[in-house]
Design goal:
mainly alpha; single chain; about 100 residues
Length: about 100
């Protein structure tokens, strides 16, 4: 599938995250990623930054392969998927229905 904009992509992205456990793992991974990034920047300890992709993708990919039973959209749409991760994270923070539907 090709998408002309992120606005067109996001409904597809949400459809690929219909499993509650998958969404929870995405949320957890993004939360830990933000926390580690903040810690590294505040303490000027950049040695931990190489963990960011491991944390970000690790939780998400477990969610997809184990619970959602699909391939992450990252493989075909890496930029839109990264944007989708942060938008879904923000949507969950603002509106818990996304997490618990």
């Amino acid at each position: 599938m090709e998408f002309k904009s992120f606005k067109d992509f996001y409904p597809y992205y949400l459809g690929e995250h219909s499993n509650k456990t998958c969404r929870c793992l995405h949320f957890l991974g993004t939360t830990l990623l933000i926390a580690l990034l903040g810690y590294s920047l505040i303490n000027q300890n950049y040695n931990y930054l190489w963990f960011l992709p491991v944390i970000g993708y690790g939780f998400a990919w477990v969610g997809h392969f184990v619970f959602e039973k699909n391939r992450p959209a990252t493989f075909k749409h890496p930029l839109y998927s990264l944007m989708g991760d942060f938008k879904m994270f923000w949507d969950i923070l603002r509106n818990r229905k996304i997490m618990f539907n």
